[in-house]
């Protein structure tokens, strides 16, 4: 007969070790955010002299004052553009991506393998930056428009199409489609009323990934946006960093420039801008966490 007391102690020891490991991993994820926030409210001279620390040695909100007093209108405008691009781009991506992946997952689609290969090919090779720039700017004429922040590189991703395809093939049984057809349902009805409702976890998972991609993207703005009124948040923050670096490089040219450069919160403003950029994501992520985990779990199931 097995000793239940020994088994109980073994289970408690296992749970204690597992909890300790999880706490360490959680701290590894949380501590960088604490350091980021602490550095953003630390005085610039203290950062330069003492370095970064988890507790600010001398608190100063000058970096946030510089952003929201000197550039408040630009900050809020860039926030609005980024929210619009993220919502619009994610919505369009969730609309057109599954529509491409669904026929590729169907066994009765004769050209499915050909188009799957073409999608997979784009994951391995691309035309490069120069041909892409020429195509989008000279043929599609999206330069300095909101579509320049939506279409290039992010709207259709081959990796996500493959994820959709595999999810549809694994979780949408052909018998469901046959039953719907017997009941008189057409392809569009089947897609919107049968396929998509059964695919909400993978839609939420990929939607979160696409949304983060749009929120953090600055390369599209760098290539296709020259109008400062069209800057997204990430591009606007990058322009501030570039301005600070330019002033710092010109500090020896004149006394006025040197004075302006000395008053610029170089290191702390980088941290403050990172905080501004990450806060909306941290607020919204808990609402998507359940569906995100469910989508990952579904993607890991093998028959």
Q: What can you see in these coordinates?
A:
The protein has 303 residues and is mainly alpha-helical. Helices cover 75% and strands 0% of the residues. The protein contains 14 helices and no strands. The chain has helices at residues 4-40, 44-50, 62-70, 72-105, 112-124, 129-139, 158-171, 174-182, 187-198, 200-216, 219-224, 233-249, 255-262, 266-299. Helix 4 (72-105) runs antiparallel to helix 10 and helix 4 crosses helix 12 (233-249). The longest helix has 37 residues, at 4-40. It is flat, with a radius of gyration of 25 Å.
What keyword list fits this structure?
disordered C terminus; 14 helices; 303 residues; mainly alpha
Number of strands: 0
- Round the mean pLDDT to the nearest integer and report it: 82
Put simply, the count of helices is 14
Binned strand content: under 5%
Computed over alpha carbons, the radius of gyration is 25 Å
Helicity, as a percent range: over 70%
What general form does the structure show?
flat
Order of helices and strands: HHHHHHHHHHHHHH
Given as residue ranges, the uncertain stretches (5+ residues, pLDDT < 50) are: 299-303
Helix-strand category? mainly alpha
First CA to last CA: what distance?
38 Å
Q: What summary fits the major beta sheet?
A: none
Summarize the structure.
The protein has 14 helices and no strands. The chain is mainly α and 303 residues long.
Question: What are the SSEs and their pairings?
Answer:
Elements (H helix, E strand, L loop, with lengths): L3 H37 L3 H7 L11 H9 L1 H34 L6 H13 L4 H11 L18 H14 L2 H9 L4 H12 L1 H17 L2 H6 L8 H17 L5 H8 L3 H34 L4
Helix pairs in contact: 1-14, 3-14, 4-7, 4-10, 4-12, 5-7, 10-14, 12-14
